[in-house]
Amino acid sequence: MDYPNEQAPGAPVRSGIPEHGRIPKYYAVKARLLSLIDDLGEGDTLPTERDLALRHEVSRETVRQALRELLLEGRLRRQGRGTVVAGPKLEQPLALASYTEGVRRQGRRPGRNLIGLERFPCPAALAAEIEVETGEPVWHMERVLLADDERVGLESTYVTVARVPALDTEFDPDSSFYAYLTEKLSFSFGDADERIETVLATPREALLIGTPPALPMLLLHRLSRDTEGRPLERVRTLFRGDRFSFRTHLGHARPN
User: Fold this and answer.
1) What does the pLDDT average to over 57-63?
2) Which residues contact 75 (CB under 8 A, 6 or more apart)?
């Protein structure tokens, strides 16, 4: 198999073109649009669908299909009635660290909008996960995640009232919950179990995040424990698939 000299690590082999060389028209347009995007800067406006269709001698529906894929991949974004070049994806480390740290590390300004904070009796399924009795009081805190005021995710955090009794009075919901637990309450994180899957947002979630329901989401489930092995928080976070990627470092597994 021939590899072009400009083949970048991680790029699709042969730029995604099948060996027989026959590619759909929309994909050829998409490849040309990617070259155009590389020549433009973040926030620059693309030509209209009509202009692109005339330039590439294809139908407007072919252009729309290429644009849809680039929007879903996060290379473009809608702005008003136009389409502009999107910035790079936010890279979130898969580690026991806060969302705030990950966003700040990339020069962006983190923020959160509180949707709700409620106290309720712990249901059986959650109680089994966080190792408490069914009916024990727990907090549920739901927040929209922001990066430079752009809505990029939705986070639900569950923690027992016994461990965090004053969450409703002394915690600033726009701040880092991780920092609150470690700095204000002196908890020490030990380890966590984490699972990631791709999903579509529910109509309510899409409305809160401000995305179309068809936009793929990265759903992260995390159960964090303290240094004594006791569950500390249970978190469910939706991240926009067009705005986020995840990074981790893997070491050699030791034999049992």
Assistant:
1) 94
2) 34, 37, 85, 86
How far is 42 from 172, CA to CA, in rounded Å? 33
- pLDDT for 10: 67
Return the amino acid letter for 74. G
Contact (Cβ atoms closer than 8 angstroms) between residue 143 and residue 235: no
DSSP string, 8-27: PTTSPGGGG--TT----HHH
Q: What is the pLDDT, as a whole number, of residue 1? A: 43
CA distances from 26 to 48, 59, 82, 155 (A): 16, 9, 19, 36
| pLDDT confidence band for 246 (50 / 70 / 90) | confident
Beta bridge partners of 147: 110, 150
Stated pTM of the model: 0.74
Is the pLDDT at 9 greater than 80? The verdict is no
Helix axes 25-39, 60-72, angle to 10 degrees: 60
Q: Are 82 and 44 in contact (CB under 8 A)?
A: no
How far apart are the C-alpha atoms of 145 and 6, rounded to whole Å? 37
Identify the burial level of 149 via C-beta atoms within 10 angstroms of its C-beta, where 0-12 means exposed, 13-18 middle and 19 or more buried: exposed
φ, ψ of residue 59 to 5 degrees: the values are -75, 160
- Would you say 138 and 158 are in contact if contact means Cβ atoms under 8 Å apart? yes
DSSP label at 143? E
Confidence check: pLDDT of 18 > 80? no
Length of the chain: 256
Q: What is the pLDDT of residues 68-83, one digit of tens each?
A: 889 888 888 888 888 9
